Structures are given as structure tokens and as C-alpha cells.
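User: Hey, my collaborator sent me this sequence without any context and asked if I could get a structure. I don't really work with proteins. Can you help?
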Amino acid sequence: MDYIAVCQAWVTSAAGTVTCDGTLSVIAVDDLLTKFSIDQLDLTLIGQAFGAGFILIASFEIASMSIRQVLKTIR
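Assistant: No problem. I've predicted the 3D structure and written it out in C-alpha cell form, which is a compact way to encode the shape of the chain:
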């Protein structure tokens, strides 16, 4: 099992050395990282993110098509 050192206040000196100015504790990495589960995803937030991305891309597409038509009529 892997462990990581956790300190309340890490201090870096001018020489580049790192020391702990608070309480140093050791925590298992498995306790810090949660496992991904598809059940944790919120469908409402996924839908909002998809909609925001779609609107962002669609607005640039529409703007580029309108600029293309304006340039085509100028020629």
C-alpha cells in the first residue's frame, strides 16, 4: 500500500528544502482517492454541461457561416 505525507503547513526555504511547520501525518493513498462510479454522476449536470458546450460550438459555427456569406456577397 502507498502512503503520502500530509502536513498542515509546508515551508520551503531559500535553499529549496521543504520542511513541515505543523503536524505531519501519514495517510494511505487509497483513503484520499475515491473510486469512480457512474452512479455518482448527476444527469442534470451532465445535460447542462452538454448543452453549454453545444451552444458554445454552435454560436461559433453560426458566426463563421454568416461571415462566410457576407464575404461571398462582397466578392
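In plain terms: Residues 36-75 form one domain. You can pass these C-alpha cells on to your collaborator as they are.
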